[in-house]
Every structure is written in C-alpha cells, then in structure tokens.
Structures
1.
Amino acid sequence: MKLKPIGIFILVLLALPASLSAQHRYWLELRCGYDALLEGGQFQSWDNGWHVGGGAAYQAMPGMQLAAHAVYHRYPYEKYTGAVPCVLGLVVTGEAIDAGEASLALRLHETDRRAGLFFTTRAGLCYYRFGRIFFSYSGDAQPLEGTGLHVVKPFGSVGLGFRIPFSPSVKALLESGFTFTFDGEQRFFPVMATVQYGL
C-alpha cells in the first residue's frame, strides 16, 4: 500500500529527538507554491498561477516568528470572459500576469512540540503587470482597452500551516490561507512550501 511508507515517515518525524526543536534566532527561507484563484475580480480572464521567492525570518520570542519575503508570481492567460464582437474570423489572445510581492509575516506556533501547526498572517504590497488581451482579425492585432495595466495594491492574508523539522538547522513549512487585496479585486488561496535554514 503506497500510503504506508508516508505514514511511517510522519511517525518518525514526530518521534525525532527533542534537540530538533532547538530554536535558531535567524532563518533564511526559500519558498514556492501554487495560487488558486477565486471567481471574479480582475483575474477572471487568467488561470491559477505559481510563485517562487525567498526571505528571512527572525525568532522574536518562543512561539513567535517574524518574516519578510520577496516573491514573484505568474498567472497564465486562460480565456477572455468579457463580451466578444460577433465578427467572423475574430481571434482573441492574451498575455500572462506578472507580479512582484514584498510582504511581512507573523507566525505563531507551539513551543513544546517538534512538529506541529502554526497560525500565520501576512500583509504587504504587490505590483501587478496585467497582460494585454488582443482582438485580431485578418492578422491585425489590437490590444483591448483597459488591459496591460500596471498597478500596485496592498494585500493581506490569514492562514494555517504545519512545520516539520528535519534537523536543528533545517525545517519545512507547508501553509495555506485566504489572501486578498484590500480593494477586493483579487482573492486567492496560495499553497506554499517553504524550506528554512537556520543561521
């Protein structure tokens, strides 16, 4: 049964010696993940995306960690969801959304466990370069008005995660949560995997 080795692996992680819970003061972080978009908003013509980035974390006190991140996001064009003129031979194409995020995070975790859940909240700014959408007929492509925008939006996020220590200096964090821009136009659930390296 394929699930049996995974179950044994998790039990071994939970039974690791207490030294694995020793806290470093500073951590470097590498992060990647998947962004599941919710319906509506300015993202409606684009598909779910992915992200990659890094940052640093500071163990401010037992059970509380502060982190700062810089992350790149990309959302591929899916299909135009607005009104399309009834013109024979009309082709609609589009470009991806590229975004850059700068954020601060707070993580609250238990202090007496080697592996366990944590609560996380983030806030920051995200720069979006929305791709252009083109209507083309007979090879003459024209960008749709209102696409190709460049905007900066503040955002927030709340979620939960699970931390897994592999050694006193290496941890993995798996987390997800509800993320939204403050204007309500973008809403999505990122699924993030982070590797922490203790300094």
2.
Amino acid sequence: MLYYVKTGNVDTSVNASSHRQAAVKAIKKSEQDLGMCVMVNEQEISEETHGSSVFFLTQSILDECLMRLVS
C-alpha cells in the first residue's frame, strides 16, 4: 500500500505493508533533517487529513533501526 510520510524536512511517499513500516522506510532512505514525530497517512498529508494520520516518535523508529539523531 502507498503511504505518505512527513517529518521535519522529509515529505515523501513509500510502499509498505503498515504505517510503521512506512515510517521506517522513509527515515532509512532520508538524509534530510528529521522532526520529533513521524506522521503517516494513507492519503496525502494536508490540514484536512492531519486528524486521521498515525504518529510515531522519531526516536522510537531510530531505535528500531539502530540509528540515532546527530546534531
């Protein structure tokens, strides 16, 4: 399924089997600045679809991928 993912400077779409997998894929392929939360939705993310989005803490995704934020 196609998911839309937004966090920090990342605004992308990825094919994944779940919201969480979409968040992981988007973060793994990104070299841009990440936000504190990752927003994932089955529809393009906008003010109207914001309420139906699934949110993850970016740090929990990074921990799962054995990655860390560098400042």
3.
Amino acid sequence: MTRIQIELVSEFKGEPVVLVAMDGDGLDVVRGSLALSKVGQLQTIVVGAITIAFSTEASSSSIDIRPSKVTLQLAPRKIDEIIEKLDAMRASPGPCHHYVGIDAPTETLVLAKDEYLT
C-alpha cells in the first residue's frame, strides 16, 4: 500500500514545517508526479481520502493544505531540487529526510522516506 502523508507541523525541531512523509512507493509516486508537472501536465493523485495536486508555478513555491486536498504549486527550479533530493533518498538504504526551502505556508518543506509516518 502506497503511503504519502502531507501535513503542516507547527513544531518540528524548533520550527514550523510542511512535512511530506512517504514510504518507498509513495516516494516514487511523488517523484513521477513532479516530473510530469514540470513538463506542463497537471498531476493529481489520490491517497486514501486525500487528493494531492501538483502544478508548476512561474516563480514561487507554495503548498496549500486543506482537509481533503493538498496542492503543491512549485517553480521549475524547485521541482528540480526536490527531484534531486528524492533521488538521493531513494538510493539510501534506510529511513532519511531532506529539507527544502519554500515560500508558503512555512519556509521549510521536509521530505521524509520511511520516517514520521503515522
């Protein structure tokens, strides 16, 4: 079963963050959706009761988190950075995470593989 959780965490190692926690399959789904959104294809996936939409935004990178829908609007350069970090996480044999700077709703996005899943 593919697992992807996206949430706003008010206190993560001393700061508010957007946490994207995934298992290995979830990481592959997120990476593929980001790659397709970068070339202009609006991507939407459904995981459990949550719809996750990926789109390309010209210059800013933000994540809108609502109870049943999460929208990731990311600049192409940010998509490249996230894909690079997801690839490094995929190569890691164990749980790991990376930090990415974003514009809203916090300054930090945490990508986690096999960590922080509830």
4.
Amino acid sequence: MKIRVFKKLDNGVYQISVHTMDWSEADKALMIKYGEPTIDLGGTFVGESPYLEYTLSTKLVLIMSESPFTQRFDSRDEIDADERATVWKTAIVELITSAVLNLRANADTFTGEEVTTI
C-alpha cells in the first residue's frame, strides 16, 4: 500500500490531503478477517517548536474506505498555519503506518480443523 500526500496553499490556507492507495490483496484479506483499522484525525498535536501545541476534534476514520483525509489550516487564523499543517501530516502518516503494521502482524491461530477419532 502507498500513502500519498498532496499539499496545497491557496489564499493563505494550507491544505493537506493524505491518501491511502494501492492496497494489496493480502491487506484487503486481512481487513476482511480482522476489520479495517481506524485512526483518529483529531487529538493534541505538538510541534518541534516549544510553543506549538494545538488540539483538533476527534474524528475516527477507516484507513482504506474513508481515504483521503483532509485538513485545512488558515494563516489568517493562526500565524503558524504552515507548521501546524506539517505536524498534522506527519502524525497522520505515522498513525496510518502503525495501523497497517499492526494489521499485518495479526496471525490467525483459530481457523483450522480438529479431528477426533474414537
């Protein structure tokens, strides 16, 4: 699978769109078996600058079927909108990566056949 990020600056608004795409059949089969992972697009985000910390409302999304994930940061509202956009993008890519790795780590130890001979 691939994560593709599109960044756009328009009239002082920094827009980030994170897309998940090119899912393998093995990943799709794991989602059928274990469920599609979710991530939260909200929460508290902290930048490298000591003063940058902000919170967005909780928004749970499915990583494949609800892609793309888009967030906008308006420089007329926040002077550090560009840094906020970068921090959000980095966090979302990390969450998706972690969710996919956790999905792939699943092992089905239940499915099988038992035979008892009497």
